[in-house]
Design goal:
Helix 3 packs parallel to helix 5, helix 4 packs across helix 5 and helix 5 runs parallel beside helix 6. This protein has two domains: 234 residues, P-loop containing nucleotide triphosphate hydrolases (Rossmann fold), CATH 3.40.50; 106 residues, Beta Barrel (OB fold (Dihydrolipoamide Acetyltransferase, E2P)), CATH 2.40.50. The protein has a six-stranded mixed beta sheet with strand order 6-7-8-3-9-10, with helices on both faces. Strands 15-14-13-17-16 form a five-stranded antiparallel beta sheet. A hairpin with a 2-residue loop joins strand 4 and strand 5. The protein has 347 residues and is an alpha+beta fold.
């Protein structure tokens, strides 16, 4: 199976927002599309899924034009960034409806619910499920489809650690069965552990396309080096070491809510509410986490951008970040950092 993109373009308001000259993805590959917010990751996935029509170029699957061949398009499945669920139904009812909608056999519903860890919640109203459970139910639709091309838009947004690890295993299972998998991510703190290839987008253009294994080994061909604009360390899975009581903890960067300097020590606060002390200074930690979605909000605070819920302005020159943890932690935001954040997030 081969997905091939040739001279793909999408224009909006007379402006070209996506332009990719050539891209191929083989069956069994897991391709991570990375880049900052607004770079075109979601747009690309929606074009590949047939949700949007390209302004120019072609997208083919095994030689069949996805914009014209309905049978070929039926072999493609997209996991949207948002969970599009009927909340009055139970998970089992929803998947049964999904099977009817797409003409899929419904005999394997219980197996699919077990695979995503929802057997014990199969008859509970979706509206009462946790955000992670809802995301698992959305993923179950891919399990039912067993698509030739699986597209996942920010699959681990709003999920807990266990769900993220489950998705990693299920995605690898899809690839092992021959599916081509393309997923979008803001960085590779999660996907970098299992993806086989990295595609980087910048302002709707391809700025990097290389084998992840080759990248780790530093063995990137010269023709690919010219496309690559980021430092190799960005794509190396990295653990933050810290001491908690009598244990040395190894945290994935995605687990860290923020880091702060306190009484001459650097303290890590995790999304699970744990606190641990690292021997690194805040400046050293900032360098280690470069390219992994962390932002220096204040001289004493390094914050995970994925967990910022709101920017609050109290006075003309006074700002605070509200995080999305259960305590809705408030982090000071300097005036200069607020300007940088505004430019970074385009708000």
């Amino acid at each position: 199976m081969l997905l091939e993109v040739c001279r793909l373009e999408k224009t909006c308001g007379g402006r070209t927002v996506l332009s990719i000259a050539h891209l191929q993805v083989q069956g069994g590959e897991i391709v991570a599309v990375v880049g900052p917010s607004g770079c075109g990751k979601t747009l690309l996935l929606h074009l590949l899924a047939g949700q949007l029509k390209p302004s120019g170029g072609s997208i083919t699957l095994d030689g069949c034009d996805l914009s014209r061949d309905r049978q070929a398009l039926a072999r493609v499945a997209l996991l949207f960034a948002e969970d599009l669920l009927y909340e009055r139904l139970t998970p089992r009812q929803f998947l049964a409806f999904y099977c009817t909608l797409y003409g899929l056999p419904s005999q394997g519903l219980d197996e699919v619910l077990a695979a995503v860890g929802l057997s014990d919640q199969a008859r509970r109203p979706i509206c009462k499920l946790s955000p992670s459970a809802k995301r698992r139910l959305s993923f179950a639709q891919l399990q039912l489809r067993q698509p030739a091309l699986a597209l996942l838009d920010e699959p681990v947004e709003r999920v807990d650690w266990d769900t993220a690890q489950l998705f990693a295993r299920l995605i690898q299972d899809l690839a092992a069965q021959g599916s081509a998998v393309v997923l979008s991510a803001k960085d590779l703190a999660w996907a970098g552990k299992f993806c086989s290839r990295v595609i980087e987008l910048e302002a709707g253009r391809l700025s990097g396309d290389y084998s992840y294994a080759a990248r780790q080994a530093g063995d990137v061909p010269k023709e690919e080096q010219s496309l690559t604009t980021v430092a190799p360390t960005r794509y190396v899975p990295y653990k933050v070491t810290a001491r908690r009581e009598d244990r040395i903890m190894l945290y994935d960067p995605s687990e860290v809510l923020y880091a702060t300097s306190r009484d001459g020590r650097t303290i890590l606060r995790t999304i699970n509410g744990e606190e641990a002390t690292t021997q690194l200074t805040l400046q050293e930690l900032e360098q280690r986490l470069s390219g992994r979605g962390f932002f220096k909000a204040h001289r004493a605070y390094l914050v995970n951008l994925q967990h910022i819920k709101a920017v609050i302005q109290f006075t003309r020159n006074s700002y605070t970040l509200q995080l999305d943890d259960p305590q809705e932690t408030m982090i000071p935001l300097s005036k200069q950092s607020e300007k940088e954040l505004q430019s970074l997030l385009d708000y």
